[in-house]
Automatic annotation (TrEMBL):
GO terms for biological process: regulation of gene expression. InterPro entries: AbrB_fam. The chain crosses the membrane at residues 12-34, 40-59, 71-90, 96-118, 160-177, 197-215, 222-240, 246-266, 278-301, 307-325. This is Ammonia monooxygenase. It holds the Pfam family AbrB. It comes from the Bacteria.
Length: 356
């Protein structure tokens, strides 16, 4: 995947990288001033994405945001997600089993429907349609598609757009449902007691050691799952009750949103529009299915409808976790489902891919 991104984005030009993040920060601040939901993430994503699609080259280079910088900030979100854990978590998690069982049926069903809809348009080959419709595991499905001989540029765009459309649609949809912008002014308020130096040291250790463990053990989404697990352990054991400072979480949102926005750099506008139409078609299936499951399942499991919708929506684990943080609801429930979604989506794609 790193090779693919380098092929698309090229080597970093650091003055351009700094300017790109400045555009992302400006977009986040404008979105915050406009009271948009999850402003620092969505604002930076939309601002940088628009600059990338427009082909702006203020310093002679397209917008750039190295994935290594994103990797350094993602553990902050993992620690913030884990900070929602409290003693009694395991007993609470038992009640999630019916919902996780429904997810095991939901993922292959929406994948198959999305695949057949995309393939029926005749705009892409069957392999690209299959891997492009996978509702999770962006890196893994793009790698599998490359090995199988899919159209790499279209496949990457379909997966990027699946993620981005979900990130944009879910908070906007919740805002429409509520009649006002959802989330805090900073975009993600993290509950917890004020952090002292010992708390900051514990959380920093969870972030760094968790990242190392997650990558070393090759856990699914290990760069965020490792910090989540160590943060959960620290909070359940009572070593700390604090959460990362709000300004740090907001900074991580800008970095993550900017990294998503630059993925459109250098891509032909015509192909982006084609991919967008196919991704919208697939999104109607996945997001529509998530909404249906949310309303049907919520009364049976004791979770809010919004939490169930968020748990089944096919966004990224990090990004959906951020939205859950912003809404202050069922953070670990949502995170557990997105971890399972990634595992299911990748497994289904690996074992049931069409031939040729």
């Amino acid at each position: 995947m790193r090779t693919i991104l380098l092929r698309i984005l090229g080597r970093p030009h650091w003055p351009t990288v700094a300017l790109t993040y400045a555009v992302g920060l400006s977009g986040g601040l404008i979105a915050k001033a406009l009271h948009l939901p999850l402003p620092m993430l969505l604002g930076s994503l939309l601002a940088v994405g628009a600059a990338a699609v427009a082909g702006l080259r203020p310093l002679g280079h397209l917008p750039q945001a190295p994935q290594s910088i994103r990797m350094a900030f993602v553990p902050i979100i993992g620690v913030a997600i884990g900070s929602a854990a409290r003693p009694g978590l395991l007993a609470e998690a038992v009640g999630w089993m019916p919902s996780l069982a429904v997810l095991c049926l939901f993922i292959p069903i929406v994948h198959q429907i999305g695949y057949r809809l995309i393939a029926s348009t005749g705009r892409v080959d069957r392999l690209t349609a299959f891997y492009g419709a996978a509702p999770g595991g962006l890196v893994e499905t793009v790698q599998m598609g490359e090995e199988a001989g899919a159209d790499m540029q279209m496949l990457a765009m379909l997966q990027f757009l699946r993620l981005i459309l979900t990130i944009v649609a879910v908070p906007l949809g919740f805002s429409i449902m509520e009649g006002h912008a959802v989330g805090s002014a900073a975009g993600a308020a993290v509950a917890g007691s004020p952090a002292g130096l010992p708390d900051l040291a514990i959380m920093a250790a969870c972030a760094v050691i968790g990242l190392m463990i997650g990558l070393r053990l090759k856990l699914p989404a290990g760069h965020v799952l490792g910090p989540i697990l160590l943060s959960v352990l620290a909070h359940v054991m009572g070593w700390t009750n604090a959460a990362p400072p709000g300004w740090l979480v907001a900074s991580a949102q800008v970095v993550i949103g900017t990294a998503l926005g630059v993925r459109f750099a250098g891509m032909p506008v015509r192909r982006i529009l084609d991919a967008l139409q196919l991704a919208l078609l697939n999104g109607c299936v996945t997001l529509g299915g998530a909404v249906a499951v949310g309303f049907l399942l919520a009364p049976w499991i004791g979770e809010p409808v919004r939490a169930v919708i968020l748990a089944f929506a096919p966004g990224g684990l990090v990004e959906m976790g951020l939205i859950a943080l912003s809404l202050k609801m069922s953070i670990l429930y949502v995170t557990a489902h997105h971890l399972m979604r990634i595992i299911l989506a990748v497994s289904f794609a690996r074992f049931f891919a069409p031939r040729g």
